[in-house]
Specification:
The protein is mostly helical. The protein is built from three helices and no strands. It has helices spanning 21-24, 35-108, 110-121. Helices cover 71% and strands 0% of the residues. It has one domain. GO terms for molecular function: molecular adaptor activity. It comes from Dreissena polymorpha. Belongs to the caveolin family.
């Protein structure tokens, strides 16, 4: 497992989260603040965003990563040892039931459907 990736979002999981200054703020046509104030505001926003995000990540990310790892361990365990074998068992068991139902419906309904088809086929139109 290679953790030295330059991208922290290689599978584009969170492209819907847009939090850059330009994604959040925009002045409408006809009203503008001074360019220097806009630039200072953008710089302050970016600094606070990065500092606070890094603090939250430092304090919480390792713990949350452990919690999610455990969650996916149990999901994987359940699928490998419970769900997939159960579905395979159901497939095997239901195959007999499916054959029986197909045979019964073929015996019961097929003659009736063929009779109706023959009757309707003999009708003359126009």
């Amino acid at each position: 497992m290679d953790f030295k990736s330059t991208s922290h979002n290689p599978n584009d999981l969170n492209n819907h989260i847009k939090v850059r200054f330009e994604d959040v703020f925009g002045e409408p046509k006809g009203i503008h603040s001074l360019d220097c104030l806009w630039d200072i505001t953008a710089t302050c926003y970016a600094c606070i965003l990065n500092v606070c995000y890094n603090i939250c990540t430092f304090l919480c990310a390792w713990y949350i990563a452990i919690e999610w790892a455990y969650a996916f361990v149990f999901v994987s365990f359940r699928h490998v040892w419970l769900h997939t074998p159960f579905l395979r068992w159901c497939t095997i068991e239901c195959a007999n039931c499916q054959r029986c139902c197909a045979m019964c419906s073929g015996c019961l309904f097929e003659p009736v459907v063929e009779l109706i088809g023959d009757c309707l086929g003999r009708l003359k139109t126009g």
